[in-house]
Amino acid sequence: MSTIEVNKIKPVDGGTNVTLGDSGDTFTIPSGVTMTNNGSSSGFAPAGISSASTSGTALQITSGNIVGAGSDATNADLGVGLHIKTADTGGSASGDADELVIEGTGHNGMTILSGASHEGSINFGDSGANRRGFYSYDHSADAAFIGTAASIRVKIDNSGVMAIGTTTYSGSPNTSCLELKGTEAPLSIINETAVDSGDRTSIAFRNAAGTLVGNVGVDNSSTIFNTSSDYRLKENEVAISDGIERLKQLKPYKFNFKIQADKTVDGFFAHEVSSIVPEAITGEKDATETYTDDNGDEQTRIKPQGIDQSKLVPLLTAALKEAITKIETLEAKVQALESA
């Protein structure tokens, strides 16, 4: 092993070529040493790098420039961090995200290469957690993940199914599915094209236990609205015996909504139905809510009641059956009188 100490190498006519060591030798650059290339020719560092420090890792540049934008007046608008540049776009970087800038006038991007059975990630950490938020791709499962608060919040699996708020699926969705899960109203949305006369589920609603409680479906000609009605989910059933009495309390009207003054419709007032068919009504009479408008001022608006008019069908059916029974009784009496 030889030692070479050089204070200065003075160029001669035609330039100077210096060969140091043989293949396999190691050269150590002590801390504090600055290596500068002030020209535009290729070498250990290209123009634009005023200092370079490596520790067991080679720095390779095959095209373009890498500059420290903060110390380079030409690229000062690109922030204080590292600027990887293949062409000048004329754009500028936000001060909130200027530690690494990748610039090029054509297609541009960054690649993370991982093992075929491993994960590639971009992590967002702080003093409390090194993976507080993240974007990651699991190569073994061919699935992508988005995380917040150190937990997975969004998953896209290898068939294109997306889950938000969960990483497991309540049903058996096909491709192009979106499943949403929350603490109040878990639901899954499945976009499944109807290709024959069979029914297809488009939107499925499930409770917190994962049980299907309703869906919106399609066939190849119409939309179908379903709510859970399986006998196995019900108990304590009794016949409706006061259909006509309760039906007579309903007050159907013709009216228009204030926002559509020229459109008359048939319907009910929710608060008048709430005591007769309470399961058909949501919300409270005369309820209001506050909100902040575009000017930052707090305002009050109506929090309207709602009605599911399909919930009136059992009552209407019971009343009609009672009426039919009365009609048939009267017809029998008339028939008996006519035959006397």
Task: Describe the structure in your own words.
With 340 residues, the protein is of the alpha+beta class. It folds into three domains: 1-106, no CATH class; 119-233, no CATH class; 243-333, Orthogonal Bundle (Arc Repressor Mutant, subunit A). The chain contains three helices and 19 strands. It has helices at residues 243-247, 270-273, 313-339; strands at residues 65-68, 82-85, 100-103, 119-124, 133-138, 143-148, 151-156, 162-164, 177-180, 187-190, 200-206, 212-218, 223-227, 253-255, 265-267, 281-282, 288-292, 298-302, 306-307. The strands form five sheets. The chain has a ten-stranded mixed beta sheet with strand order 4-5-6-7-8-9-10-11-12-13, with no helix packed on it. Strand 17 and strand 18 form a beta hairpin. The longest helix is centred in the C-terminal third of the chain and has 27 residues, at 313-339. It is elongated, with a radius of gyration of 37 Å. The N and C termini lie far apart (135 Å). Residues 40-63 and 172-176 have low confidence and may be disordered.
How does the overall form come out from the CA principal axes?
A: elongated
Task: Specify the structural class.
Answer: alpha+beta
Strand order of the largest sheet: 4-5-6-7-8-9-10-11-12-13
Cα gyration radius (Å): 37 Å
Mean pLDDT score: 78
N-to-C terminal Cα separation, in Å?
135 Å
Strand content: 25-35%
- Count of alpha and pi helical runs: 3
| Count of the separate structural domains | 3
Q: Could you give the count of β-strands?
A: 19
| Major beta-sheet overview | 10 strands, mixed
User: Roughly what percent helix?
Assistant: 10-25%
User: Poorly predicted ranges (pLDDT <50, ≥5 residues)?
Assistant: 40-63, 172-176
What is the H-and-E element order? EEEEEEEEEEEEEHEEHEEEEH
